[in-house]
Amino acid sequence: MSQPSAPKRRRATGRVTLQDVAVAAGVSPITASRALRGERGVAADLVERVQVAVRELGYVPDPAARALASAKSNQVVLLVPLLSNALFVDLLDAAQRTLLQAGYQSMIGVTHYQPEEEEALLRTYLMNRPAGLLVTGFDRTDTARSLLTGSGVPCVHLMENRAGDGLYSVGFSQEDAGRAMTQALMDKGYQRIAFAAAQLDPRTLQRATGYRAALGDRHDPRLEFMDAAPSSFALGAQMFDRVLADAPDVDAIFFNNDDLAQGALLQALRRGIEVPAQVAVAGFNDLIGGEQMLPPLSTVRTPRGEIGLKAAEMLIALMRGEAVEQPCVDLGFELLMRGSC
């Protein structure tokens, strides 16, 4: 059954209401409410129509709608993939400090790189009517996108950039960064450059795209080593061994994250393999400890603290109803070519 187009929203916040759901489903607001509560007296076909409308409109039931209709929240939701990664800890620290100074409290959710977990967190947090949202990247379920749009809550995307009507983002080009490091290795004379990656989240895959673009016709798919397991020192050591076993003529390895690269450098020391004389090693993100490795790790410095700061400032402006002159902010990156290359 085709659904009527979404009605004009009645609240100044732009939030999808129960009335909107009822109109889209072709039922009364009372029937829509009863269907959402799971009451037995509602016909199955009406329940299905209401559920379809809820999914398409991104409606979030509000158990305290009357009490909260005119209230203003000071809570901001921050959704990140992991707290065990220093990358996101630095970002969260900067964002939270900035928000706190402006009078906002942070609610942190961890998605574990799972779009379904992010969707569940959004449903839960949006029921509390937060003042704003900071979310990581653009990879999410269609339902989560509808929730973000239908909530009417100001939202800024972190770590990636995408221009578009109503989109706000602060980050840098992961693809450009991957291309730049690969090109830097080529400029140093390395011919057989492997790409070793873990976690395989969208930002990692964008770096891989940059790696391939830099190599062009020289790209050899056999020199890509991908592992969906979480990134770690131990996995970096294992991947170092795997690369050298499967492709002994490799003269440089570009790891998608510094913990992998640091694990690889430690494994090279254990095995007596000279870096960079026998094989060069490069990482990504400039995490703590890289400069103290033997040799110091070449890497891509990413502006994670500045991303947190600028994204929080942008969100504060949106929550205050102020115009944002630059909705898509690219903070760039920096190549750090140290002793490992």
UniProtKB/TrEMBL annotation:
Q: Which SMART domains match?
A: HTH_LACI
- PROSITE patterns for this protein: HTH_LACI_1, HTH_LACI_2
Q: Which domain of life is it from?
A: Bacteria
The name on file for this protein is LacI family gluconate utilization system Gnt-I transcriptional repressor
Domain HTH lacI-type, first and last residues per copy: 16-70
Name the species this protein comes from: Roseateles terrae
Alphabetic keyword roster: DNA-binding, Transcription, Transcription regulation
Xref: SUPFAM superfamilies: lambda repressor-like DNA-binding domains, Periplasmic binding protein-like I
InterPro entries attached to this UniProt entry: HTH_LacI, LacI/GalR-like_sensor, Lambda_DNA-bd_dom_sf, Peripla_BP_I
Q: Name one Pfam family in it.
A: Peripla_BP_3
